[in-house]
Amino acid sequence: MKKIQILFVSLGLLFALQSEAQIEWESSYEGTVYQTKMAIKGNVYYSIDSYSNKCILYNSDHTTWKTIDISILEVIYIYELKYVSLHLFNSDALVELLVVYSEYKYANDTIGYYEFTTMIVNESGAQLLAVAGGANPYVFNDDGTSSKLMVYIYDYSLLLYPLQTQVYHLPGVQLAVNELEDPDSFFLGNPFPNPSKSEIIIPYNLSQENDSGYLLVADNTGKVINKYFVDQGAEQLKINISSFNSGVYLYWVETPNSKTETRKFIVE
Question: 13-35: per-residue pLDDT in tens?
Fold first, then answer.
């Protein structure tokens, strides 16, 4: 009788465990896939194929929705693609996206520099905005009815290159704000130019809870070789890498309360 009772108890526990919500696999993608939220469409996934210069959009059920050919831009290197949206940059029914691309130009036979351009295009290839020298753009909601785009302008053809910030009013509202796009959040951006021989600039932002800390640089084995103090008084850090050996380096920001993800830069 006891064995029968134990059997019923065991079956009851097994049924209870199976009836609870479980983690379920949904889908797999080749490469890195990002998520955004579009007006009317809702949640959308997208990926960037840098080799064929295509942006592939996926529905919330992971089926392919659209493939946008970015090669119409005739760019040399796509540095960043973000803000895939429907009504953020205008009110038509076409998908729009922001692209940052770079070209390496030679000042003479031995010295060159990177020239960045920030561009907003739609799925048909029409340019809505082109900002020469623009890099590290981000969008933030202004008053709930519109958004602003900030773009930093650099002229690397000059030794002491000037920095300019341009602000643009956008007609739409950004529906999905992740921590890398929120100016009030704790984040670490991509380095530029990357790769580089002489210096790199790393954008960052420290939150109220993380108002100071250190940006650490490590070699490809993870050994820390340099650290730089960072605080809320600046939005980027310039690092002279002319003495670094060629190779891949890691970097991240640590504060007493938190730590960012680890990113990479390449020294030529």
Answer: 555 545 567 999 999 988 778 88
Residue 39 neighbours by CB under 8 Å, 6+ apart: 85, 86, 87, 172, 175
Strands annotated E in the chain: 33-38, 42-49, 54-58, 64-69, 77-85, 96-106, 112-122, 127-132, 134-141, 147-154, 163-170, 187-188, 199-205, 212-218, 224-231, 236-240, 247-254, 263-267
Label residue 257 left, alpha or beta by phi (over 0 means left) and psi (-120 to 50 means alpha). alpha
Please, where are the H alpha helices in the chain? 2-19
Edge-to-edge order in the sheet of strand 187-188: 187-188, 199-205, 236-240
Least confident of 93-102, 141-150, 165-174: 141-150
Reported as a single tens digit per residue, the pLDDT across 52-64 is 778 899 998 999 9
* Residue 238 structure tokens: 């310039």
User: What is the CATH topology of the domain spanning 184-268?
Assistant: Immunoglobulin-like (2.60.40)
Within 8 A by CB and 6+ apart from 227, the residues are 214, 215, 216, 217
Taking alpha carbons only, the member of 244, 237, 189 closest to residue 220 is: 244
Sheet containing strand 64-69, strands side by side: 33-38, 42-49, 54-58, 64-69
Reading the block at residue 110, the tokens are 């031995």
pTM score, whole prediction: 0.61
Contact 258, 236 (CB under 8 A): no
